[in-house]
Design a protein that fits this description.
Length: 318
Amino acid sequence: MREALFIKKNKDRWTQIEQQPASDPDEMATEFIQLVDDLSYAKTFYPTSRTARYLNIAASRMYLGIYKNRKAEVNPLARFCKYDLPQTIRRHHKVLLLAFGIFTLFFIVGVCSARGDESFIRGMLGNAYVNMTEDNIAQGKPFGVYANENALYMWLWILKNNIFVSIQMLAGGVLVGLLPIFQLVFEALRLGAFEALFAQKGLAGDFVLTVFIHGTLEISALIISGAAGIILGKGFLFPGTLSRLEAFKRSAKDACKIILGLVPVFITAAFFEGFVTRYEFMPVWGKLLILVGSLTFIIGYFIIYPIRLERKGGFAHA
């Protein structure tokens, strides 16, 4: 193409970009890519021309305009929390929904199975635990189990146990995702039996307000851990257009990111269980504040924020 024709064909667009640059991030990115393409063409066919110099200046100016207000992400942890983890979570939202659906379904099954069947409750929770809980209820301290141990010891022991379970779920994903599904089913049935134990004593509301002080974060993290294991198995079973090995490596990377991102959630949940849940007679408003705050964080960070970040084009930073 002759240089004059090349200029005539693109001049109006160049003028538009120079005088009225787009404000939308996606449109701005498109304009920048087009400008760089034009610059590459001009350098190839008219390397010493004024057109090539003009496009080089325009592209440089646009590049500076895009990045001049962007703060450098010098903190890898901040970058991980703001971009990498939400991007990974958003990519697997359907799997998280599947894990949540499995857990919810079998929690309901657990509650229904335990109603009027004490043997189911004892089978899921163990005779010793049920007997201890019934003794505590008879003494007017239905949730006394949370106050029986040293708070610091409980915090560290529960944290270790929860992280171990999450890693177990992740590793179980190697078995084409079956083990994390089984663990989600088992934990949901146990929670259903646990709830039914208190409901039979007329303490269903107290159960929610007390146990879910820590349970909101703990159960949410458990479900997300199960999803991470399923993601690992899914990459092997359904590689798509990638090789099975490459798909498995990518899914393993995503699953590990998710588990790593859950560590602060596990720390906070264990802290609540060790130091806060033991105060079963704390004001209802205090319990609700922690419960609603925890639920808001889970929904906000793991559901709403990744969606909004994607819509704003924030994934371009990741």
